Amino acid sequence: MSKGVYLENLATSKYERPTGGTLTSQLQTKEAMKEKLKKYERADSVDDIELDRHVRYITLDKQHKQVFRTGGLLIRKENAYVQLSNGRQKWSVQRYHYKDDGEEPIFETVFFYRITLKQEFEKKEEKYIDVIRRQRDEIKKLKKIIKLLKVDAR
Question: Where are the domains of the chain?
């Protein structure tokens, strides 16, 4: 993200939620989440994700219910929160959620980062190499069976 680009803070913007719900509100099923996370991997910690990487996340809403969010580019990391941007606006995402009277977090936001094309290629390559290994093992077994059948046929 280039320096000097003005990003409107979503919290202070004049944005109004659509009455029929947002796209994100329609993505709260496991199937929809799986589809949106196809080229993403779960991060052990948001600290492991480099800046300017696209992230999606699962956090708690105001009713303490887990919700999936489509996210944005990671532009800032702090101890208590991270900031994301969609290119026009920026917003904060709490890393930890606490009960009103609690000192210990009751939930840690789960972040998923977009894998690079290289990582995507490597995952596919590993999958294909595994298929080839299994096919080679199967061929070896079949060759042994053929040899035994030839010996028995004599």
Answer: 8-115, 116-154
